[in-house]
Design a protein that fits this description.
Butyryl-Coa Dehydrogenase, subunit A, domain 1, globular, alpha+beta, about 220 residues, 5 helices
């Protein structure tokens, strides 16, 4: 049996109160209207929720994974769409940068992500590669000190509102499929980033889902 610490219980109760007061009252409405819960995500960033499992060096809370899971559970009690957007932002965008980015990348991107000033997305799935992610066709071609990205991603959570994307592309077609893939940090403002229309989904409708394409995008 897992026994929570006093700190973990405090985090759980704080998130529960926030979810009840700020998220639950509009959960049904934003599901119907497909309104992205950006305001509440920004509030969560200001309160430190988005930075719970990350280093304080970059604006995080220096807390553990259990604390993060407790936050996710409390959000999911009242709104699945908000939870999905938060989980994608933290686990699929901020976490890869935190784990595998160099120091300059961490310093540049994590503070805004962990405080909710910018939202994050993860670009892996493509029209012809889903569970077989290694079959992706997006390419990144080296040109001098940069790479040029070309291709399309689909079902990108937070795609229309993110400022930072973690994008997977082929950099070496001469090796086995998975080993020839690299991840890139792409900013929304980079020329060649094309944001598609919002998907009209059956459920979790407030969580923004779109196609994101790259047309000679210089990274």
């Amino acid at each position: 049996m897992l026994n929570f610490t006093d700190e973990q219980l405090m985090i759980r109760d704080t998130v529960r109160e926030f979810a009840k007061n700020e998220i639950e009252p509009k959960a049904a409405e934003i599901d119907q209207t497909m309104e992205f819960p950006g305001e509440n995500l920004r509030k969560m960033g200001e309160l430190g929720f988005l930075g719970i499992p990350f280093s304080s060096k970059y604006g995080g809370g220096d807390l553990d994974t259990v604390s993060f899971v407790l936050m996710i559970e409390e959000l999911a009690r009242v709104c699945g769409a908000t939870t999905l957007s938060v989980a994608a932002h933290c686990s699929l965008c901020a976490t890869p940068i935190s784990m595998f980015g160099n120091e300059a990348q961490k310093q540049k991107y994590l503070p805004d992500l962990l405080t909710g000033k910018k939202f994050g997305s993860f670009c892996l799935t493509e029209p012809h590669s889903g569970s077989d992610a290694a079959a992706l066709s997006t390419t990144a071609t080296r040109q001098g000190d940069h790479y040029i990205l070309n291709g399309s991603k689909m079902y990108v959570t937070n795609g229309g509102y993110a400022g930072t994307y973690v994008v997977f592309a082929k950099t070496n077609a001469q090796v086995s499929k998975a080993r020839g893939i690299s991840a890139f940090i792409v900013e929304r403002e980079f020329p060649g980033v094309i944001i598609g229309k919002k998907e009209n989904k059956l459920g979790l409708r407030a969580s923004d889902t779109r196609q994101v394409s790259f047309d000679n995008c210089k990274v």
